[in-house]
Amino acid sequence: MSYIGAKPTIGNFQICDAISVVNGQAAYTMQVGSVNVIPQSSNHMIVSLNGTIQKPNSSFTVANSVITFSSNLATGDVIDFIQILGDVLDLGVPSDATVTNAKTNFVSTSSAAGLQIKDNIISGQTALTSTPDNTDEILISDAGTLKRIDYSLISGFSMINETTASGSASVAFTLSSSFKHFMVLYENIIPASDQQHFFLTHSNDSASTFESANYNFTIKGFEDDDGEDFYGANGQSSIQLTRYQVGSDTAEFGVSGVMYLGGVSTNTAVHKGGVHISSSETYTAKLNGNFGAFNYSGDTSAWTNIKFAFASGNIESGSFKLLGSR
């Protein structure tokens, strides 16, 4: 390949430390900065002795970090220099775990820029970003055009935890302060004892001491045979999530619903919707709908944990999923 100007130079060029000649000695240890060095081979070296360049593998040989001249040197001989060229044809392959973040600067920190490529596909667009926080902007490619957008505009809910109840007294989740909003999806939650209301309580300390007073709630309930009504209460020991009781008969489906918890860092307001189907009276199936708004008036401390349970007895079966949004 032709070049305009000087040809690029590739190699790890090093000048060895000065070596004092010992009378009657042929072998000498090569060092750079007082550290032993090992050339690729004799052909990767330029050695000057008494002002004359020596021929590799004839005038000298190397083994590891030792150079051995073809004959013993004598007092008055001078090793002018030894230059190690490195492997000028092959750059080599780095050993595992030798290329660190400090060498690549791929991952950004709070004080230094960097680059991190993540599998982060957003609505058919490709994002190239460091791990975002609440105030970050990210770059996305929209039809080949890079755009900067606020991460909070595209950050939806992500899975935090999920659990399946099986004869459980209750199901509890920790609310991480890394998220601003939470959503709970519960599906086919069936009580071990028949005809039970479904309840929610919370804690606001690290010891997970669940509050037992100051809950306020309003529920709108409807049944396909009984119409609809409202029910509410203030200062209760827990939040009632169902207007009508949930049954445990084999012909019944447990309560299922979606709960949104907003503002859990202060005095929390909760909105939820749920439904369960039961076999009752003259109807093959009874549809119970429950929609409500709830809050806690005890203090304004952040909620740290939530817990679901029936009024009495265990949760026989059902699945829970906790999602969070930044």
What is the CATH C level class of the largest domain, in words? Mainly Beta
In terms of DSSP E residues, the strand content is: over 45%
The domain tally reads: 3
**In which range does the helix fraction lie?**
under 10%
- Based on secondary structure, the structural category is mainly beta
Shape: rod-shaped
Task: Give the N-to-C terminal Cα separation.
Answer: 54 Å
In the predicted model, the low-confidence regions spanning at least 5 consecutive residues are 117-132, 278-286
Largest sheet: 8 strands, antiparallel
For the biggest β-sheet, the strand order reads 14-25-16-21-22-23-18-19
As a whole number of angstroms, the C-alpha radius of gyration is: 37 Å
Tell me how many strands there are: 25
Mean pLDDT: 76
Strand and helix order? EEEEEEEEEHEEEEEEEEEEEEEEEE
CATH topology of the largest domain: Jelly Rolls
The total count of helices amounts to 1
Indicate the CATH architecture of the largest domain: Sandwich
Brief summary:
With 326 residues, the protein is mainly β. 1% of the residues lie in helices and 48% in strands. The protein folds into three domains: 14-84, no CATH class; 102-153, no CATH class; 158-325, Jelly Rolls.
